[in-house]
Amino acid sequence: MGQRHGTAAWLLAGLALGPASSAAAGGIPAGCLGPPSAIWLNVSVEQVKSSSGFITLTLYPDDQARFLKPMGSLYVTKVPARAGVTQTCVFVPGPGSYGLALYHDANGNGKIDRNAIGIPKEGFGFSNNPNILFSAPKLKSVRLAVNVPGTVTRIRMRYP
């Protein structure tokens, strides 16, 4: 499913979003991504500009020292982008707090494209939709409590 990796650049974080899914036996939605567990997060990615490429989503533990760092993520996964809203389900290791970072890899090249000064040229988003001015957000602004199966979050894509 997903693979473990971190990101050198603040938005190269990616834990991908899976297709919208229906409930399977036991209440876990079919197609839920990541290492299976008893706790999962339903993610709606809103304001996706096109159905080109993938939405890549990265799940981070509740540890500022690991957030948006190389090898800091719990796992990374991706799903086909859907214009408007892309929905997915991702497993989390257990009850607790996590951070999500995502980007729209519109050209499908497996990375977030940037301009000459490092600013993303593709859409991105974070859990809790924090305000972003000149740098990446801190974990405290994207921290999301996931204590029960089926917790729901909505993330708005931002495009340059």
Q: What features would you describe in this structure?
A:
The strands form 2 sheets. Strands 2, 5, 6 and 7 form a 4-stranded antiparallel beta sheet that branches. A 3-stranded mixed beta sheet has the order 4-1-8, with no helix packed on it. It has 160 residues and is an all-beta fold. The protein has one domain: Immunoglobulin-like, CATH 2.60.40. The chain is 2% helix and 34% strand. 41% of the residues are buried. It is globular and about 45 Å long.
Helix-strand string: EEEEEEHEE
* Gyration radius, in Å: 14 Å
Number of helices: 1
- The outline comes out as globular
How many domain modules?
1
Oligomer: single chain
Measured distance between first and last alpha carbons = 29 Å
- In terms of structural class, how would the helical and strand content be classed? mainly beta
In round numbers, the mean pLDDT is 85
The percent of residues in helical segments reads under 10%
Could you name the ranges where pLDDT drops below 50 across 5 or more consecutive residues?
A: 1-25
> Judging by the overall fold, what is the CATH architecture?
Sandwich
Strand content: 25-35%
